[in-house]
Amino acid sequence: MNITDIRDGIAANVGTIDGLRTAAEIPDNISPPIAVVSLNSVLYDTAFAAGLNTLQFAVSVIVARVDERRAQERLNDYISTGARSIKAAIESDKTLGGNAVDCRVTEMTNIGSAIIGEVTYVAMDVIVTVYAE
User: Fold this and answer.
1) What percent of the chain has pLDDT over 70?
2) pLDDT confidence band for 79 (50 / 70 / 90)
3) So what's the pLDDT on residue 48?
4) Cα–Cα distances in Å, from 48 out to 45, 54, 128, 132?
5) Distance between CA 75 and CA 73 in Å, rounded?
6) What are the residues whose beta carbons fall under 8 Å from the beta carbon of 18, sequence distance 6 or more?
7) Fewest beta carbons less than 10 Å away: which of 1, 19, 42, 96?
8) Cβ(132)–Cβ(106) below 8 Å
9) How many structural domains comprise the chain?
10) Domain region containing 109
């Protein structure tokens, strides 16, 4: 299990969404719209005689707050099942470039304002569960 490769795989899948920047690591500066992948937790030895681990990642999608309604509409596009769907993009290659056994987008949480530096954005977290050996 290589966490960096898994994180890169998630970022690569999200990067297929036209116009959405991605970062496999937390950047010093952001330029929205951007999706930032971060590791939430690792549960070791969940199956197969200590051979399978369960990892949980958050993909934080951050958009500019031109106005509250417009920003919310942009996030809604990423939540939807259309061409800009984060879920569809992440699950388009469930092995994340051969670095995982499987992955699933399980939920969207924490939608709201996010202050980064001195700028207020609108953001949400998409939770990704990854199964890897």
Assistant:
1) 97
2) very high
3) 63
4) 8, 12, 21, 11
5) 5
6) 83, 84
7) 19
8) no
9) 1
10) 3-132
